[in-house]
Amino acid sequence: MNKFFCILVATLLLAAGVAHADNYGEDSGDDSKSKSLLAAEAAIAKGNWAQALPLLEAHIAGHFDDDEALAELGYVYARLGDKEMALQTLQSALWMNPRSLEANLYLGEFYVGQKDRPHAMERLAALDRICIFGCGEYRRLKKAIAAMGASR
After folding, report:
1. What is the DSSP string of 82-125?
2. DSSP letter at 36?
3. CB neighbourhood size of 29 (10 A)
4. Rounded distance, CA 18 to CA 100, Å?
5. What is the mean pLDDT of each successive set of 10 residues along the chain, which is 152 residues long?
6. Dihedral (C-alpha) 42, 106, 20, 97: value to the nearest 10 degrees?
7. Domain boundaries, the chain
8. For domain 1-18+34-97, which architecture applies?
9. What is the reported pLDDT for 66?
């Protein structure tokens, strides 16, 4: 557990190093999504990982307990090819919320990309426990694992 705490602290320190001002305006202070998070999600939807990265980092700097945004940050790191930061960030998101659908999915997909079937299957099993009647995240990871086996 100390390893995960160290990863979480490292991720938070990274986020703290990002400019605290939101480039797209101040957050309202309520529970709604910040403007930087909304802009990051729009960039992710377009596959613009480089644009999403600083927006997510800015959001997390002011919302370090947002495990969903942290999982999205890990996903973006993975898409940009930064495997070490992707793994650390996704593990931190999972440490914060072991039942996070996004963190389990993205970490499972990360393992699929690394051809690490046993760890990918662990994330699939976790999603199976979380999604009692199945969910899109479970089906997406199951399909990715099946494709990994077919590509051998």
Report:
1. -HHHHHHHHHHHHHH-TT-HHHHHHHHHHHHHTT-HHHHHHHHH
2. H
3. 8
4. 25
5. 51 45 40 82 96 96 94 97 98 97 98 97 97 92 91 58
6. 120
7. 1-18+34-97, 99-152
8. Alpha Horseshoe (1.25)
9. 95
pTM: 0.77
Question: 50: Cβ–Cβ under 8 A, 6 or more apart, which residues?
Answer: 80
As given in the structure block, the two tokens for residue 15 are 């986020």
Residue 67's Cβ-count burial label (10 Å; 0-12, 13-18, 19+) is buried
DSSP H helical ranges for the chain: 2-17, 35-45, 49-62, 67-79, 83-96, 101-113, 117-130, 136-150
Contacts 24+ apart (CB under 8 A), 86-94: 86/110, 88/7, 88/10, 88/11, 89/7, 89/11, 91/4, 91/7, 92/4, 92/7, 92/8, 92/11, 93/67, 93/68
33/36 Cα distance (integer angstroms): 8
**For residue 152, which amino acid is it?**
R
Contact between 46 and 77 under an 8 Å Cβ cutoff? The reply is no
